[in-house]
Amino acid sequence: MATRSHTQKDFLLGYEFPLHPLQDFALNGTLASHAPEHPKEWGQEKDGFDFWKDFEQHFGSKSPKGDGESVHRSIAAAVSPDSKLLAISSAYPREGILIYDVVTKELRQVLEGCGTLAFKPPAAKYNVETEGQAATADAGGKPAYTLISNISTSEPRPQPYTGLILWELDHNGRLFVEEEPIDPAAIATKAIEAIVPELESEHEWTRAFVDASSLHADFVRALEKTSVDHRRRNNTVIQDAQIPSFVQSPFSCDGHSMVYVTNNRTTQHGMRDPEDLPHVVVYDVDAGREVHHFSGHTDMVAWFGFSPDGRHVASVSWDGTLRMSSIETRGVEWATESSGGQSWSGAFSPDSKHVIWSSRSGKEIKVHEVADGKVLSIFPETVANWCRYFSWHPTEPQVALCADKTVYVWRPFDGPEGVVVQRMVIDGGDRFPRMAQIQNASWMEDGRLLALGISDRTTLVYDTLTNAKEVFKRQRGVDAAHIRSGFFELPKGEEGKSAYLSVDGDGKVRYWDRSVAPLPDAQSERESPVEASWSESRSEQGRETPKNGKYVAVWSKIREQIGGTRKGKETSDQEREAWAQQGTSIWTAE
């Protein structure tokens, strides 16, 4: 009997996120539990608003509820570095960008862009005094915010968007330079009235024919398109430039530079001349010019990124290679051999010394030294599906990664192949075993929280200190578009309470209070289940015992097992499997 092929609409109608995973997070041998007042469903939020009504008003009136249109939409979101502005974009058929004030929920600006969204980091991101920076920049005659997006075309796009535009905004989120808009309908009427007499007298047109024709509508569309081009003369526009979907930010940490790729089309249907192959380009945002071109990839580039220190750009391609380029020397420092399958994603460690990537069709994961390309660690398991999302912990030598229905927390430097210290596996059910997936994972609140995006649009947040899970759940049957990066941590309010903001696929922005579970006994709010910092993890010097002594117990046990394994020249398959199985017990050692 043939297996029925399910659509995304079928999945959203029939699937409901299971509250009991096949394998759960754990702390000190205790499985994770739900935080107070959780799980929560859409509709139980503290506050929110309907952003899709604004899209309908400004970019078209067709309802997204009809015939499952929502599942075919693609929406992206971004919050400004100071958490004051929210940008939401929609791709074809209703291309546009809306800019909101996060606190007042006021719609501040409508932009004619779409697709990719990212705010440029402030140059003083790492300075202590950054409060009021946006207002200061605005008062000084400079834009307070810079937002990058794709260029809208109002045409169906079988390929990804291949043009970028930079938007400059003031401290209120409005265009820094804005012109008075034209009225295309009124101008079209005036123009037609001026030419109708000649059409009637010289060309035998009639007023009835003109009124019944599409002349006025065509005139309006032409004016609208031309007026968009006229307004864009105030913006930086880069043609044939693309930011792949797995790139978290195209900007350097100081905001002075950004990276994109040109000629980014696959060669799997036929090779092209070298000059027509993908080029990774570094662009000086302040000077408004390209400064570096890195070539060498022979197929579509799926990911690139700046190292946090701004000295390197790494790129991963469908040609199966990772290439490391130097900003200082303007050349490629090293490149891997082809892995023999598509490569999808990567990420630099916070200290800029290591890079992780997925190869062999996204199923093999390695960590390299940035300096020389040396392989330091290989993930001890072959993941079930493409691994296309990595998130390094901001202070600990560990990385969160997800593939198919599993999210892992992996410490790549603990042992010959590292140690998997956490693992959660969701239940895909019998009807949709291939469609239920964990799509992304990211650390929040300086690494205390791990947020997971599920393919049914549900979000789960795991608290590594309290061993509690917050679940923000889409109900079964609710139609919802795909959202790229739609869950954000907000600064504490006047009452000192933490909150989240979610941009959800049903067209709603939601504000959620954070539910904080009680801390386990013998663990203060400042203590983490794993106490090894980035500097400590790579140093052989002595370490000071923390208050609870738990770090020494964990590290001693890890060192004992590493030492026992490293005595031999090689590690057997059985030993590698033992490392993977012992990961959780090592991480939760007392």
Automatic annotation (TrEMBL):
Signal peptide residues on this chain, from the entry's feature table: none
Residue ranges, annotated region (Disordered): 519-590
Alphabetized Gene3D superfamilies for the sequence: YVTN repeat-like/Quinoprotein amine dehydrogenase
Chain intervals with Polar residues compositional bias: 581-590
WD repeats: 294-324
UniProt keyword terms in alphabetical order: WD repeat
Domain of life where this protein originates: Eukaryota
Biased composition (Basic and acidic residues): 537-547, 567-578
Annotated PANTHER family: TRANSCRIPTION INITIATION FACTOR TFIID, TRANSCRIPTION INITIATION FACTOR TFIID SUBUNIT 5
The protein's name: YVTN repeat-like/Quino protein amine dehydrogenase
